[in-house]
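User: Could you check the structure of this?
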Amino acid sequence: MTMKADDRLIAALDFHTMAEVKALVETLGDSVSYYKVGMELFYSVGGEVVRYLREKDKHVFLDLKLHDIPNTVAGGLCSLMNLGADILNVHASGGYTMMKTAADRLHAEAEKQGVPCPKLIAITVLTSINQEDWDGVGQTLPIKDAVVRLAKLAKSAGLDGVVASPQEAALIREACGEDFLIVTPGVRPAGSAVNDQSRIATPATALKNGASHLVIGRPIRAAADPKAAVEAILKEMETVK
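Assistant: Sure, the predicted structure tokens are below.
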């Protein structure tokens, strides 16, 4: 999967206000072309942030993790598509029927409107979950095996990829092929705080493991010089061929 480093880095906009978003986007300038908009921000400012980023010619991963009955998820995705995001996502644990219905309806709606269809990816197992949490909800498969199983299920349902920890990326790449998107949160440059992530890796390790895109938030936005932090991350990413 050949992409430039700055197309593979997704900076997470984990803010509450448009003022904070605009300040960081202006600071980072051309060094970042892809941004993640999650629940914290979207629930505060709504679609305005996606429209702002598109006006700035930025790509958008709208990370809302839809998880409901098939018809509701499919309808929600079709509504979100109109905002212009490049990637949307659902929870793979919603099951094959939910994912297949969502993918089919999203593609049909995009074709009907004559617009490009966003990529649709599935959450496998949240990167904050450790083995104790996993056992606590009654799961019996090891996390890595469950992640691969969910990734293969998402692919069979017609999705374009998954969100998974960098520690499982190599197994997913082997199981699902080269064209499957693997978006990895839980990426921490050397020396960064772990915070609430459990299954983490450095940018170089995540890419070597097969990740197609890296989502990085706190190490950028909490840096004394966010642009310098991005440039250091990109430099590390470029060492991986």
